[in-house]
């Protein structure tokens, strides 16, 4: 079955096949490790994880790179402002390196809790060998005549690159400086951007390096180009990020990479829409962000957030609310308790239901895939058959269904004797017409996540759903 993905370069769903027969090169822009990831960031990483799983189910090996930004990302996301890492270090009275390793670990923990399988290749921008790669890329751009120097850095001249802003459909002629990036009088054009920034004369930066142009640090955009080219080659198959990366960060990555190599940088660009809160974008600078810890503090299983995210298409905005998360939790709990009542699957592997595969291969239509999944859960197939299908589908959802339902099953198993005794006592109470006591016991059993059903043949235990 063909895999179709919405490509921001062509503005349509294109049939995806990789350049190499069985292997996909995938570059996903990673976190800036100066603070915890917020739920919006995590939505994007969940989308990328689902994409990776779908590629694998389609028979591809995935060679993925995710960068860790630990230098050069300035507070205004453009060429001005403070380095987010240095700001974070000041905030916490630590070194930039300490901040980077603390929040990198926090990110890895969040990913693990959400079943996001991270790539083996996670290069850090401030590592010596990647600083070198960034300097070399800037040198190439300089040799090819794409750069100029100002008092504060080396800039990319966006007018020298023919198709600048094509993907974002930027109206370059009418673009006013200040609307998109902050004012910088020495820049030749509003869309030019820093490749290398000089350290300030009056302040010592924590992170700075020698370069042919002077002591300083790389601009944020150049790191992704340098790492993608170094780790995956001049042309990659898919490049991903949140939608906010489309007009500036990815636009600049394309310009500098293609100017340097003369080759197409990425064949597909996929962008995840934003997570909103109170109908506004969730963001660190917006000051309205929630972390995974805030969900854990309210006793939500992190995977209920993953379930919530799967309920919306990745190209649709999604509004976060506690109410909506609660609904996801109820659906997720119901699913697990259903599965715990089923027999263990008889077969190891199960072919995917055609409708399910069609949905996921149609630009990752996970809401539709979830609906088909629930249809199967509710069908009359024997539970062992269903179980095999459900676990196969969970290779894409990543909801730990097998593990969680097994845990519940074991829990019921251990409480068997206690529950049998309660059932016996309830039966006696019923015979004595002590219905109040019988209801009390029913309630006690329900609290253990089980339902009592009275039938002609006596009481039956059922998984509560
Ligand atoms: P950052 O750490 O700011 O570089 O962002 C990491 C990733 O999260 C990027 O791919 C962003 O595009 C993405 N992102 C930022 N805010 C949101 C949001 N509210 N919803 C979804 N993705 C977001
Ligand atoms: Zn990037």
UniProtKB/TrEMBL annotation:
Keywords: Aminoacyl-tRNA synthetase, ATP-binding, Coiled coil, Cytoplasm, Ligase, Metal-binding, Nucleotide-binding, Protein biosynthesis, Zinc. Zn(2+) binds at residues 29, 224, 249, 253. It holds the Pfam family CysS_C. ATP binds at residue 284. Its EC number is 6.1.1.16. Residues 417-457 form the Cysteinyl-tRNA ligase anticodon binding domain. A motif ('KMSKS' region) lies at residues 281-285. This is Cysteine--tRNA ligase. The lineage of its organism: Bacteria, Candidatus Kerfeldiibacteriota.
């Amino acid at each position: 079955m063909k895999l179709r993905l919405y490509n921001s370069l062509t503005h349509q769903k294109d049939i995806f096949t990789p350049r190499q027969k069985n292997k996909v090169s995938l570059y996903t822009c990673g976190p800036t490790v100066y603070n915890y990831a917020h739920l919006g960031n995590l939505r994007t990483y969940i989308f990328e994880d689902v994409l990776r799983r779908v590629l694998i189910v389609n028979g591809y090996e995935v060679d993925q790179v995710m960068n860790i930004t630990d230098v050069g990302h300035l507070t205004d996301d453009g060429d001005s402002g403070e380095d987010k890492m240095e700001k974070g270090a000041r905030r916490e009275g630590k070194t930039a390196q300490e901040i980077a390793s603390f929040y990198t670990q926090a990110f890895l923990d969040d990913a693990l809790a959400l079943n996001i399988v991270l790539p083996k290749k996670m290069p850090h921008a401030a590592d010596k060998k990647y600083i070198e790669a960034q300097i070399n890329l800037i040198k190439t751009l300089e040799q090819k005549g794409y750069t100029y120097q100002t008092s504060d850095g080396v800039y990319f001249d966006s007018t020298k690159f023919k198709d600048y802003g094509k993907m974002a459909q930027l109206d370059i002629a009418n673009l006013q400086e200040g609307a998109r990036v902050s004012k910088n009088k020495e820049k030749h054009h509003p869309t030019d951007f820093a490749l290398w920034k000089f350290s300030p004369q009056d302040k010592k930066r924590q992170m700075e390096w020698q370069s042919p142009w002077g002591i300083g640090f790389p601009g944020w955009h150049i790191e992704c180009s340098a790492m993608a080219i170094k780790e995956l080659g001049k042309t990659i198959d898919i490049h991903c990020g949140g939608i906010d990366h489309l007009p500036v960060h990815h636009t600049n990555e394309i310009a500098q990479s293609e100017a340097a190599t003369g080759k197409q940088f990425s064949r597909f660009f996929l962008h995840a829409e934003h997570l909103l809160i109170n109908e506004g974008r969730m963001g660190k600078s917006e000051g309205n962000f929630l972390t995974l810890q805030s969900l854990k503090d309210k006793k939500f299983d992190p995977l209920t957030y993953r379930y919530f995210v799967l309920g919306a298409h990745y190209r649709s905005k999604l509004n976060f609310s506690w109410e909506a998360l609660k609904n996801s939790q109820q659906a997720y709990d119901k699913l697990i308790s259903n599965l715990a009542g089923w027999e263990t699957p008889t077969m190891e592997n199960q072919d995917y239901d055609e409708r399910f595969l069609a949905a996921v291969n149609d630009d990752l239509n996970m809401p539709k895939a979830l609906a088909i999944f629930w249809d199967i859960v509710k069908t009359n197939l024997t539970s062992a058959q269903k179980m095999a299908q459900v676990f196969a589908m969970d290779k894409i959802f990543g909801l730990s269904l097998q593990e969680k339902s097994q845990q519940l099953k074991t829990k019921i198993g251990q409480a068997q004797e206690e529950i049998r005794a309660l059932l016996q006592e309830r039966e006696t109470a019923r015979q004595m017409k002590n219905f109040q006591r019988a209801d009390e016991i029913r309630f006690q059993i329900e609290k253990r996540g089980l339902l009592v059903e009275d039938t002609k043949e006596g009481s039956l235990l059922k998984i509560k759903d």
